[in-house]
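Tokens for Signal recognition particle 14 kDa protein. Go.
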Amino acid sequence: MTSIHHLSSVVFMSELTLMFHSARNAGEVTVTLKRYDGRTKPYPKPRKVNKGKKVIVPEPLPEPEEYMCLIRAKHKNKKIATVVKQAEAVKFQMQFMQFLRSSTDALKKERKPRKKAKKATQ
């Protein structure tokens, strides 16, 4: 597996274009978005000291100044990711929406099965 590097939004979009192009005939591209606060450490859990008699509650981590959006994409073994700040979110969202509209034109139309009309019994 390859490691994930946080790319700039411009490089991320160009890499995502290449992923969609290579997945056009076969395969899939998975894109995930989540709120990201910039933390790299897990939330601290309460610990027990001296065989469970005393519980130490750790100090909670401080709240971030601003939340960001972490966007990941995966195609086969290739993974890419970017972090978009709040100030750039609207611009990136418009660019991403335009990209999705242009790249999802080769989707197959799903055919719905026809329901047979019931014969009227008299």
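Helices lie at 9-22, 89-103.
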